[in-house]
Amino acid sequence: MAKIIVVTSGKGGVGKTTTSAAISSGIAMRGHKTVVIDFDIGLRNLDIIMNCERRVVYDFVNVINGEANLRQALIKDKRAENLYILPASQTRDKDALTVEGVERILNELAADGFEYIICDSPAGIEHGAFMAMYFADLAIVVANPEVSSVRDSDRILGILQSKSRRAEKGERVEECLLLTRYNPERVAKGEMLGVTDVEEILATKLLGVIPESETVLKASNQGIPVIHDTESPAGQAYSDAVSRLLGEEVEHRFMSVEQKGLFQRLFRRSA
Amino acid sequence: MSIFDYFRTAKKDTASIAKERLQIIVAHERNQRNKPDYLPKLQQELLEVIRKYVDVDQDQVEVQLDNNGNCSVLELNITLPERA
Ligand SMILES: Nc1ncnc2c1ncn2[C@@H]1O[C@H](COP(=O)(O)OP(=O)(O)OP(=O)(O)O)[C@@H](O)[C@H]1O
Ligand SMILES: [Mg+2]
Fold first, then answer.
1. Which of A154, A169, A163 is nearest to A127 (CA)?
2. Count of C-beta atoms within a 10 Å radius of residue A90
3. pTM of the shown model
4. Which of A6, A191, A193, B69 could link A145 by a cystine bridge, Cβ 3.0 to 4.6 Å?
5. Are the beta carbons of A269 and B19 separated by less than 8 Å?
6. Which residues pair with B77 in a beta bridge?
7. pLDDT in tens, A92-103
8. Alpha helices in A169-223, H assignment, sequence order
């Protein structure tokens, strides 16, 4: 049975697509047959982050409408062996996604042997975001340590708990928090919400903390999901998050200012 | 509390302000969210009934639902106009 994971946030631009690309690549590299679906109809972007923008022929909506079959629309990733991308359509209206249509595609993917289905949600709480989360078994709520993002995350958690199919069946979507663009220096200075603050406010299990990192932009410039950059803290943090998703216990990293000398630390604290 | 903490808390940092504000708004919004969907309609219909007898405005009728364990209390608060 396939596990359906939605990457969602409410607020835009917090790192959902970056996360979907990294997590799906990471899971696939661990040997699981994985597909990542772009639900951002009209604003397709997962393709360019994953460097397959010139290979898109058919898209998600074409498959739902029966204009193409899955095999024609799925794009095989050039880096990760077991990874496929289902791009969003660029032009059609977002209501093209229907509950029945999406369900049929998810079932087909599961029947095709996909173990993990990652759904990259659009921002907002409208139709597209709803479609991306409706069938989820697990939700990765992406948040930045910033008031509007945290507040929106809580709204999304509320929607997951009341409007998802699992909620309708009296079950629960498993939820976890991924805090991205984290800057431990600013947290230490009291300028940014800390991870424990956000965990406490949202009362949600922490999947990981992804530090703010220049390597994320470099990765997207080249269309290489940042998880492939094993030297970068962001890449390593995503890799840890993948391990946790797959059930391993991995200690959290990149949450505090790098260990400096004792004097430097004392100096920083009293400053 | 070390002396360093004293310096840090002397002036409240902006992250603490953010946390406090978030805790308040999130608690408020969760409370709203758990309310049954029929509440606005109930409020509207109650208002109509009350209006048959007294001349009150929308904002003078307050309907609140509070949960105390396994029992819910529906509280209705109507401010009657001053007598002419
Ligand atoms: N850890 C990080 N460090 C630095 N920059 C980051 C990090 N994560 C994401 N970004 C940057 O933030 C921007 C938004 O990221 P992304 O497109 O993944 O967000 P999104 O949530 O998918 O946006 P949308 O809501 O528009 O779909 C991008 O420019 C990305 O490079
Ligand atoms: Mg996106």
1. A163
2. 13
3. 0.86
4. A193
5. no
6. B62
7. 676 789 999 999
8. 184-188, 195-202, 214-222
Q: Is the CB of A213 under 6 A from ligand 1?
A: yes
Rounded to an integer, what distance in angstroms lies between the CA atom of residue B41 and that of residue A261? 63
State the distance from the centre of ligand 2 to the C-alpha of B3, rounded, in angstroms: 45
Length of chain B: 84
State which ligand 1 atom lies nearest to the alpha carbon of A9.
Answer: 21
Minimal-distance CA residue of chain B relative to A200: B23
CA distance B17 to chain A (A): 9
> Ligand 1 centre and the CA of A16: distance in Å?
7
Test site for ligand 1: of A6, A7, A18, most ligand atoms within 8 A of the Cβ: A18
Q: Per residue in A43-67, pLDDT tens?
A: 999 999 999 999 999 999 999 999 9
Give the pair of three-digit tokens for residue B80. 């009657």
Q: Is A27 on the interface with B (CB under 8 A)?
A: no
Q: Greatest CA separation found in chain B?
A: 67
Task: Cite the DSSP H helix spans in chain A.
Answer: 16-29, 46-49, 60-64, 70-73, 99-111, 127-134, 147-163, 165-168, 184-188, 195-202, 214-222, 233-245, 262-270
Q: Are A36 and A21 in contact (CB under 8 A)?
A: yes
B20 vs A: CB within 8 A:
no
A14-48 residue pLDDT tens: 999 999 999 999 999 999 999 999 999 989 999 99
Give ipTM to 2 decimals: 0.85
pLDDT at A239: 98
Average pLDDT over chain A, rounded to an integer: 93
